[in-house]
C-alpha cells in the first residue's frame, strides 16, 4: 500500500523524531526554531505559512515529534540534524514506522551544522583509541584541525548511537584493543582533506595509546591491525588548525589532553600546573590571561555506593564538562604569539600526554562561551566550585 492511500503513513512521512531534548525545550520554542531556520536558509518547499504544523514533547523519555506541512519539508529539515539548540545538538531521525524512501544523508548541508548521522560512504572515517575523558566537543575540535565536519558520531561504551558499517569489517573491529577506549565516525565537508587528516592523525599519541584512523567505507578490507599500543610508531603528530593564514587575529590558545580533573583537585598541585603553563607559554609572547577550569568540589555525603551516588558522579562529570574542565585557555596579547605557541606546543608531551592544540578568536563559539571562561576573578587561583 502506497503512502498516498494510507493516512497514517502519509502523516509519518511528514514527521521527524527529535531525540535528547532537555526540559528547556518546549513545543513552542522548538516550532519557532524550525520555522525561523527553514525560512532564513530557504530550506524546504518555501510555500506560504510556517513549515511546522505541530510539536509533541515527551519529557519522560526526552524526545519530541515535529510534524511538517509536507513530506518534502520534513525531508529538508533532516539537514538540521546536529544543529545546536539551547543546550546542545538536536538528534533528528525518521520515525521508526516511517514508510517512505529513507535517504542515508540529507541532500542539503547547512554550513556550521554537524550531523549526528554518518552515512556509509567512501568518505566515512573511523577513529579508535580515543581517551574516555575526551567529550564530543573536544574530539570534534581535534578533527576540525583539518577541515569543517559534515557529520560526527562518538560511539559510547554502552553502544548508544553506534553507526552501521560493513558486517565483516565491524566484526574485525570488535576484537580490537583500542575499542576498549572510545571510538567515533566522521566525515568532512571537503572530502579532499580526508586523506591528509588520516595520515596526520593515524598513530598520534594520546595518553598511553595511539589513535587508529582509517576509512570506514562499506567493503573496506577486513583485518584491522590488532596491535598493542606500544607497537605503533612512537611519533606524536602536532595538530595544526586548518586555514592557518586566516587565524592571524586568533590570540587564544586552547590546549587539550594536557590536564585531567584529578590533576586540578589539590590546591598546591593546581597552583604548580598554573605557574608551569604560564611560564612555558610566556616564552612565545606576552600572556594576557590564563584560565584552567577546576572540577566541582565533591560533597562526600552524596557519594555513597548505590544509584544515588552513581547519579551524583554522573552529574558532577557533566558539570565539569560544561564548565570546560580538562582544557587550558591561554590568551596572548597578539595573534602571532598564539601561533608561535601553537607550533611549539602541539604534539609535545606534558605529564606523559601529547598536547592537542588549536587557536580561537575572541568571538569563537565554544561551550562554555569564552566570555564566561575569561570572566573577571580574583588574582589567586580559583577554589574548587561547590557541588
TrEMBL record:
Residues 378-387 have a biased composition (Pro residues). InterPro entries: Nucleotide-bd_a/b_plait_sf, RBD_domain_sf, RRM_dom. Keywords: mRNA processing, mRNA splicing, RNA-binding. GO terms for biological process: mRNA processing; RNA splicing. The keyword Nucleotide-binding does not apply. SMART domains: RRM. GO terms for molecular function: RNA binding. Transmembrane segments: none annotated. Residues 297-320, 367-387 are annotated as: Disordered. Residues 14-97, 123-218 form the RRM domain. This is RRM domain-containing protein. It comes from Paxillus rubicundulus Ve08.2h10. The lineage of its organism: Eukaryota, Fungi, Dikarya, Basidiomycota, Agaricomycotina.
Amino acid at each position: 500500500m502506497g503512502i498516498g492511500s494510507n493516512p497514517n503513513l502519509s502523516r509519518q512521512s511528514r514527521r521527524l523524531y527529535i531525540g535528547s531534548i532537555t526540559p528547556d525545550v518546549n513545543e513552542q520554542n522548538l516550532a519557532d526554531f524550525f520555522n525561523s531556520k527553514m525560512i532564513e536558509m530557504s530550506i524546504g518547499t518555501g510555500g506560504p505559512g510556517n513549515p511546522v504544523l505541530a510539536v509533541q514533547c515527551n519529557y519522560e523519555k526526552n524526545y519530541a515529534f515535529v510534524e511538517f506541512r509536507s513530506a518534502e519539508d520534513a525531508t529538508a529539515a533532516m539537514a538540521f540534524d546536529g544543529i545546536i539548540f539551547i543546550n546542545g545538538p538536536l538528534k533528528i531521525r525518521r520515525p521508526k514506522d516511517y514508510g517512505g524512501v529513507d535517504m542515508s544523508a540529507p541532500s542539503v548541508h547547512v554550513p556550521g551544522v554537524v550531523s549526528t548521522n554518518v552515512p556509509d560512504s567512501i568518505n566515512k572515517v573511523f577513529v579508535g583509541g580515543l581517551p574516555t575523558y575526551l567529550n564530543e566537543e573536544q574530539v570534534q575540535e581535534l578533527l576540525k584541525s583539518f577541515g569543517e565536519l559534515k557529520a560526527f558520531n562518538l560511539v559510547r561504551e554502552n553502544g548508544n548511537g553506534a553507526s552501521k558499517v560493513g558486517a565483516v569489517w565491524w566484526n574485525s573491529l570488535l576484537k580490537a584493543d583500542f575499542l576498549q577506549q572510545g571510538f567515533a565516525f566522521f566525515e568532512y565537508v571537503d572530502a579532499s582533506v580526508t586523506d591528509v587528516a588520516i595520515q596526520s592523525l593515524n598513530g598520534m599519541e594520546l595518553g598511553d595509546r595511539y589513535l587508529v584512523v582509517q576509512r570506514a567505507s562499506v567493503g573496506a578490507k577486513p583485518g584491522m591491525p590488532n596491535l598493542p599500543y606500544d607497537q605503533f610508531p612512537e611519533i606524536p603528530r602536532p595538530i595544526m588548525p586548518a586555514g592557518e593564514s586566516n587565524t592571524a587575529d586568533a590570540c587564544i590558545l586552547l590546549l587539550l589532553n594536557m590536564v585531567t580533573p584529578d590533576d586540578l583537585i589539590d590546591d598546591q598541585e593546581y597552583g604548580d600546573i598554573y605557574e608551569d603553563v604560564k611560564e612555558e607559554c610566556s616564552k612565545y609572547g606576552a600572556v594576557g590571561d590564563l584560565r584552567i577550569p577546576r572540577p566541582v568540589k565533591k560533597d562526600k555525603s552524596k557519594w555513597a555506593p548505590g544509584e544515588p551516588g552513581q547519579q551524583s558522579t554522573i552529574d558532577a562529570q557533566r558539570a565539569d564538562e560544561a564548565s570546560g574542565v580538562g582544557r587550558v585557555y591561554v590568551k596572548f596579547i597578539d595573534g602571532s604569539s598564539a601561533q608561535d605557541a601553537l607550533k611549539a606546543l602541539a604534539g609535545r608531551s606534558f605529564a606523559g600526554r601529547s598536547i592537542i592544540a588549536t587557536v580561537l578568536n575572541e568571538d569563537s563559539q565554544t561551550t562554555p562561551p569564552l566570555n564566561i571562561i575569561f570572566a573577571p576573578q580574583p588574582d589567586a587561583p580559583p577554589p574548587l566550585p561547590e557541588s
